[in-house]
Amino acid sequence: MSDADAPPTAPPQSAVESATAAAAGDAAAQEGGVIPIPSSPRPAVPPTEDFLLHALRASGEEGAMARLAALEVEPAGGAGDNFLGELWRARVTLEDAAGARRTRCLVVKRQPTGDEREVYLREARLFDVEAAAYTSALPAMLRLLRGAYGETFRPFWPHFVYASLDRTELVMEDMSTLDFQLADRKVGLDLDQSKAVVKHMALLHAASMAMYSQNQPAVFPFLESLFRDSTRQFLETYLRAGVRQLALQLREWPEWERYAEKVSALEDKCWDMITAAVARDDVSFNVLNHGDLWVNNVLFRKGDGPSSLDLEVALIDWQNAVWTSPALDLLYFLYTSPADEVRREHGDALLQLYHGTLQQAAQALGVGARAPSLETLRADLRRRFAIAVFPAFAELPNMLAPKDLHYDIAQYFQEEPPRNKAYGAEPYASIIRRLLPLFEDCGVI
């Protein structure tokens, strides 16, 4: 085995933290996955003029003489969005010494303080991971992709502007001002959109293979998955609550009572099952996964060509990026984001498109020999199918819930959570009844 083929060996924790610190827009109105918020946050304080001007100057993108001529700041999102961090949209107008003005449209992500979210974010290192992705891994992969496809290759993520030294504040361009838009998560992605996502997913994975072959320490900040001991208290509570809610709903559908018992039996073992499914196998094929690849973390802009693959894509919210099997991104995306009929009728074709694009990109990047066969990939997805339990049982009901059935996920952390009626509402009710036989067939339930 050559050095380039050797599995990454995690350095001591202090070295991991040092590597992360050294490696330190999205449409933010809907950015982020449905992640538990254990308590009500303190009122958020908007970013100040001084902070925004410092961020732009520190990035080297604005001269020291630029002054702030105008500023508009507004929250990115509203009540019930279940964001884990604070999100702000800022429109900053700068004026140079000659009086010329330019406007920068930014998104500011800030780690909250004073409540359990701060503890969770610190333990999960989500802001550290995202800073490492934007400032180290993604630029390295962009250089490789431009080397393979030409300097005109455009990144499929927001331009990053600034990370504070303690990695609690991140600033990036606001992609919504560049005509990138979110799809309707309650409708799901159509076939063209789904094809565009799996194509870019494959490009990301192939580029990460090439990055790893040249610089193994580049993946050190991404060796831990979200499912680990330091996050277990919060995530397991959230997952077990979702399992209980689904089992309660299934008991109200007489023909599905046998599934209610199977789902209920998962409550005590779902954490270990999902943790094992996500875990990296160092002797198998691994890539840098986005880790939270669902419809609300993908923006679209129509490209110049007639093909669906000419859709421009921007992937946002890189806080869960992790080095492991591509099954994580594939299963998470396929079981949260395409419209139900797209997943049912074209799921295998999407997998084949991903694999073909991965092989082509890996070949162009000089790592073609490392790409797995389609048969190997299928087997890995089946072996890790438990990954789909987390979105299907805990997240999808809240993603698809009608507005009148909004459920604040903080309620899951109450001693006796109220019923979440989203589990019995359409379209989730029809989707889960189609998915349960798949989980049974794969031995998950």
From TrEMBL:
Pfam families on file: EcKL
Low complexity biased stretches: 15-37
Domain (CHK kinase-like) ranges: 170-364
Protein name: CHK kinase-like domain-containing protein
Region (Disordered): 1-46
InterPro entries: CHK_kinase-like, EcKL, Kinase-like_dom_sf
Domain of life: Eukaryota
